[in-house]
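Weekly modeling sync, notes
Attendees: S.R. (lead), two postdocs, one rotation student

Agenda item 3: backlog of single-chain predictions. S.R. asked that every request posted to the team notebook include the full sequence so nobody has to chase files. The rotation student volunteered to paste the first one in as an example of the format we agreed on. Action items at the bottom.

Example entry:
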Amino acid sequence: MNDLFETQREMRHRREAAVKRGVMAVLDVGSYKISCLVMQFSGEDFEAGAPNVTMPQMGSFRVVGVGTVRSKGVKFGEIVDMGETERAIRSAVAKAQKMAGLRVDHVMVSLSGGRPRSYGLTGEVEVEQGEVTERDIGRVLASCEVPPFGSEREAIHALPVNFNLDHKSGLSDPRGQVGAKLSVDMHMLTLADAPVFDLLECVQRCDLEVAGLAFSGFASGVSTLMENEQQLGAAIVDLGGGSTAISVFMRKHMIYGDAVRLGGDHITNDICQGLHLGYEDAERIKTLHGGLLATGSDSRVEIEVPNPMAQWENDRRTVTRSDLIGVMRPRVEEILEEVRARLDASGFDGLPSQRIVLTGGTSAIPGIEDLASRILGGHVRIGRPLRVQGLPQVSAGPGFSAAVGLALHASHPMDECWDFEMPVDRIGTRRIKAAMRWFKQNW
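Predicted structure, as returned to the notebook:
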């Protein structure tokens, strides 16, 4: 099967089947770490023998296993060494399975690389029977004109974010309503195809079946934005190790996604060069002593660091915390300035709410909230994922926002265009299918 349209449907069917069996995993593949959560669903959420699975509501699962390993072979959120990444994924999944005491066969995965791009699509049709049906939804989605984004990019999200029926607008689901003319606004997110193919091939090598694929910025928004933020409009900035994922939500849907190819690893590398340290020492010092807003006392706070020129074991050297902040701050400012440029391009300033939520492991750096407020403007806060049943406290920090968001999305997925039957005789459908070609051979 070489059509993304059908592949996404197949993934959805696998996810539904896995949830019906009661066990599924989610896998967040980042540049700094790889996290796996094993989810157990309650069998009472489904009717015995029902031909169509009813997906359970958010919160009806329990996390029974967590596995986290240091990522290897991933840079800028993209796989650069297949073998190293495969071993890391196997290790994370094995740890989660051991903790859960269960074996998993299906995983939903997220990635932040692939140079995401957003497109706003519109479509309009006449309602056939006077009352909006499932077929009308499929027809209006098929009527959307897809931009020519190129043969080397693939769509991974196609979310209908707003329906209009005659004079009524802002409809999330018009089925069953009476009207004559139905229109839709749809958001499509595309990624470069090579990083997507590499990730899915790597997961397959680990003897796992892919039951869904999501952009990490989308997953982080699902888990960290409060209901009023998703409704009125908010931006989520997921500061990861190798890249920073950005998404904007409005009316509880993602309406924009992008990424900056800079993250916490670049800050660590600056410390390596600026203070002449090895990577592991730089990472440790960043975590224990790092910050972004210097005070008068920081010039007197001395941090002991390894001395590569030492001739004796006790021959150590020190740097001040002011020195460390002086190395870290320019890079964080650069990242936030790039984020600001992306948000400006998205039209974020035009939303009713100007809330910005920082999450991801790098958001733990002291002072980043204040610095972000100065550069990004608006109301800025640090976002932590929603508490889900069974999630250990150690896995409840900002660094697990994408993984938890994947779990919530698996439990209560948003409708995407491939969830509806589209008439095959419509030129619009052929345009969408032509725009969504995936797996030339493997599926």
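Discussion: group reviewed the output briefly. Residues 4-114+194-218+390-413 form a domain with the Nucleotidyltransferase; domain 5 fold (CATH 3.30.420.40).
Action items: rotation student to repeat for the remaining queue; S.R. to check formatting next week.
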